[in-house]
Every structure is written in structure tokens, then in C-alpha cells.
Amino acid sequence: MGRGVRKPDYTRGFIDRHGKPRFYFRRVGFKQVPLPGLPWSPEFMAAYEAAMRGSTAPPVEIGANRTVAGTVNAIVAEYLDCSPKATSPFKTLAAETQRTRRNILENFRERHGSKRIFYTDARGKRDMLLTREHMQKIVNEKIATPFAQRNFLNTLRAMFTWALSEGRVSDDPTLGVKRRKVKTTGYRTWSEAEIERFETRYPIGTKERLAFALLLYTGQRRSDVVKMGRQRIHKGVLTVDQRKTAGGEQAHLEIPVHPKLREIIDSTPSDHLTFLVTSFGKPYSGNGFGNSMREWCDAAGCSDVSSHGLRKACARRLAEIGCTTHEIASITGQASLSEVERYTRAANRKRLAQSAMTKLVEGES
Question: Does pLDDT of 229 surpass 50?
Fold first, then answer.
């Protein structure tokens, strides 16, 4: 098309992933407008005429998507950049962590996007406009719960730590910012009574029992369990490459298959690459599997526990038979031994109490 010639208005259509036809009208200088129904139907033509008049399509604001250097918009956009040339560590994070942090940063950008983070004086020195006092006020007034405050601060600290190391800011405004302490033990560990209740509800050979056994006898997260399949078992050893580890790196595990898990796998029909598939024959996503486990647990009368509690139950069982922290970590794959100790603290206390009482009785005899 020659220079100065106006591009024509146009209508485009396609078939979406559900097999339904979709149509849009785009008028030059305006945003595209969805057209309902089929071409030449009354509703289609009414929407088309309205779009032609420009009454339903707001004009496109030139430069609306551009970011101004030094603003919250700019720093968030640079941190979320996952292109090959990007220096941000965000692209190395696990998919679930990326999703969570992206939501937090997009909400932060929506509220404060146009605000400047720093001011550059005549000598080129950057003075921070976003200070610790501002950040503390945001945490106190806008972030409602201790969990949300923790996630918010962890996300912004990661972003500003990177920005400071890259010289994009002169200070980290999250340093020293306090949040309300989270007083919780996290996901509740399954008791042996709850384990028996679930196993009674779902016999060997069912998908529910296989899913349960994979969680209990491997000690893995749901995001790793959904990727397990027969091809990952060789000479009685299950290979797992964990998605979520410290720094976003994978942790390679080789877990001997428990005899009970072997029995359940052999008794459950499967013609797919993964042990667990949806009713449509597709592999589960981590969140989809978590939702299904929630339904299965509720149906079994185990509404107070979840799939992650089985990971803790596996660690508890290992601690109760005297496994060391390093031995437990070789199964569960946690990078932090303190996290393993937190999982097994109650079990260790119980075992030590029994040992102490035995010694006391023997000493008195």
C-alpha cells in the first residue's frame, strides 16, 4: 500500500478452540469490536453498523502502551521480561511461581504504574522517590492478610534486588519493611486414621487411589506427581525432576518404588504416558489435579486435609521410623533441611519421647 493511502476497515473471523466461530470488526484508529452471531444475522448487522459509526469502539490512544523510564510500569515490565536477551531472573522461576508473582506485580502496577520510583538530578544522580516509608504504608493499608503481605514483600524484594544489582535503582525500598507474622503450621499432615479412611473409600484399581498412593509414597508435590508415568520407572526406581526448587532450578531425584505403590500401579489400567489423566484423556495440570483431590478428599470425609498434607505425611512416616533429615530430603527433595525439620518436628518429638520413656523404665528396673 502506497504512502499516505488510508488502510481500509476490515472484518475478520476465525474458529476458536471450542469450535465456535468468532468475528471482529476493526476500524482504523479504533479498537477492534467483537461481532455476535453469524454474518448477516440481525444481531451481527446491528453490532457491525454500530462499529462502523464508532459508537462501540473507543479510539486507540497513541502511545498508551508505552512505559516511561523510571516509573513502576517500566521496572515491572523489565522484570517480567522473559525474552532470551532479558537479564531478569523471573524467567528462570517455576511456572506456578511465575503465575503468582506476575499477578502480584500486575496488581501493583495497576495501582501505582505511572508513579516514578526515582528522580534523576542534573548530575545524573538517582534519588529514590519510592521509599521504605511508602512501601511500609502500602503493606499496612493495602495488603489485608499476613499471607498476602508475605507474598507481596517476597515478590517485590526479588524484583528490587535484581533492579539494584543491575543499577536500575539506587536503593531497595523493601529493606526493613515489616509484615504481620504468619502463625501457622501450614498444610495439615494426614493422620493414619485419615489415610485409612481415604483408602477405604477408594479401593485399589481406581484413579483416586493411584493418585493418593503417588503422593503418599513419593512425597512429591502435585505439580510433579502429574508428570509421573511408567517410562520414568527403571529397575524399580522412579526418576523425578522437580519443578519447584530454590532458585528455580530442577532437583533430580531417584526414588525406590515402594512395594505398595508398585502393587497399586500394576492394578490400575493406564494407556497414557502419565499415570493420571482427566476424563478427556489429557494429563492433569497441577491446579486441576489439586481441585480433583479436593473433591475426592471431601467425598472420603477428609475435608480438613489436602494433597500437600500427604507430602508431609510421607516425611512424618520416614521420621517416625528413625530416618535422618538428609535421608528424608533425598525422598522429598527439599533444598532446605530446616523445611524438612519443620515437617517432621512433631514426629521426632514423639519418637524421642518414646525412647526417653523406655530408657527411664529400663533405668528403674
Answer: yes
Average pLDDT over residues 135-161: 88
Non-local (6+) Cβ contacts of 116 within 8 A are 68, 70, 71, 129, 130
Half-sphere exposure of 272 (CA within 13 A, CB side): 16
φ and ψ of 256, to 5 deg: -60, 135
* Cα–Cα distance measured from residue 47 to residue 37, given in angstroms and rounded to the nearest whole number: 10
Domains of the chain: 20-63 (no CATH), 72-165 (1.10.150), 192-355 (1.10.443.10)
For residue 305, the 8-state DSSP code is -
Residue 182 has pLDDT above 50, yes or no: yes
pTM: 0.59
| Amino acid type, 161 | T
**How far is 206 from 265, CA to CA, in rounded Å?**
10
Nine cell digits for residue 77: 515490565
Report d(CA 326, CA 294) in Å as an integer.
Answer: 31
Q: Is the pLDDT assigned to residue 248 strictly greater than 60? A: no
**C-alpha dihedral sign at 323, 326, 327, 330:** positive
In angstroms, rounded to a whole number, what is the distance separating the alpha carbons of residues 325 and 341?
7
Model pLDDT for residues 318-333, shown as the tens digit of each residue? 988 888 889 998 999 8
